[in-house]
Specification:
This protein has eight helices and 13 strands. It has 259 residues and is of the alpha+beta class. The protein folds into two domains: 14-163, Jelly Rolls (Sandwich); 169-254, Winged helix-like DNA-binding domain superfamily/Winged helix DNA-binding domain (Arc Repressor Mutant, subunit A), CATH 1.10.10. The chain has helices at 30-33, 40-49, 130-139, 141-164, 170-187, 201-208, 212-224, 240-247; strands at 3-4, 53-56, 61-63, 71-77, 80-85, 91-97, 102-103, 115-119, 123-129, 194-196, 228-231, 234-237, 253-254. The strands form four sheets. The chain has a four-stranded antiparallel sheet with strand order 2-9-4-7. Helix 5 crosses helix 8 and helix 6 crosses helix 7 (212-224).
């Protein structure tokens, strides 16, 4: 999981009035949503399909269990947690989604959402009507390939979760999560070493299969060991290589110190 050390995260992307149309050409996360090399003509066609932007307040749901499948949602700013509800009513956090990622794929096969997505902070998404997106993809091979890649990525993430929650120790689970978030922020042009952890400790504990008390103790331990420094919701990774060893990732790093 090589990391590129880029510019420091200074805050959320600007919130934009939901009454205005989406412009893929000017979107700050377009390189994460659009296929590389897509022509301006094809981007214009995609913008005709793309729906309006939607602002979601912290704690609000983007979609709920049982909602019909109509759109994919591309996150422009903010973050979300994806949650499934078991038959006995217990909830399980299955994913934390960041800018440039898509939500809503859980409903593709059944056409009904089996999970819900809740904003962890004030967030902004682009609505992508899937039926129109599919038709357009049949005409633009690069876009169709991107859709296939997105589904493949979803399968990969599911496998990562299974490995994370398998037989790993508690400290390895938390370290792996921090390394994963670090890598994803770096791929978005933000700092790999300093970022806002928008999810509360209770959600992290639920995701990792731990108690909130254990997660809090691990954060304190990682600070004492010099791996991280935590100030409110801001996490600074002070020993990236050390943390990666705890996570069991043994990452290679390019341009270290380039933050």
């Amino acid at each position: 999981m090589p990391l590129q050390f880029c510019k420091m995260l200074t805050g959320q992307l600007g919130m934009i009035d939901s009454s205005t149309a989406v412009s893929c050409s000017n979107c700050s996360v377009r390189r994460l949503c659009l296929p590389a090399g897509l022509s301006q003509v094809d981007i214009d066609r995609l913008e005709q399909v793309t729906g309006k932007k939607k602002l979601i307040k912290a704690g609000e749901s983007l979609y709920r269990v049982g909602d019909s499948f109509q759109n994919l949602y591309a996150i422009r700013s903010g973050s979300f947690k994806n949650v499934v509800i078991a038959a006995d009513g217990d909830t399980q956090v299955t994913h934390f989604a960041l800018p440039g990622e898509l939500l809503g794929l859980d409903a593709y096969s059944t056409r009904v959402h089996s999970s819900y997505a809740e904003a962890l902070e004030d967030s902004s998404v682009c609505l992508l009507p899937f039926s129109q997106l599919e038709l357009l993809a049949q005409q633009i091979p690069a876009l169709q390939q991107q859709i296939y890649s997105i589904f493949s990525e979803e399968l990969r993430k599911e496998n990562e979760i299974l490995m994370l929650l398998g037989k790993r120790s508690a400290d390895t689970r938390l370290a792996a999560l921090l390394m994963n978030i670090s890598s994803r922020y770096a791929s978005r042009g933000y700092s790999s070493r300093e970022f806002i952890l928008s999810m509360p400790r209770t959600d992290i504990a639920n995701y990792l299969g731990l108690t909130a008390e254990t997660v809090s103790r691990l954060f304190s331990r990682f600070q004492k060991q010099g791996f991280i420094k935590v100030s409110g919701r801001v996490v600074q990774i002070q020993d990236l290589l050390g943390l990666s060893e705890v996570a069991g990732t043994h990452c290679g790093y390019d341009n270290e110190g380039g933050d």
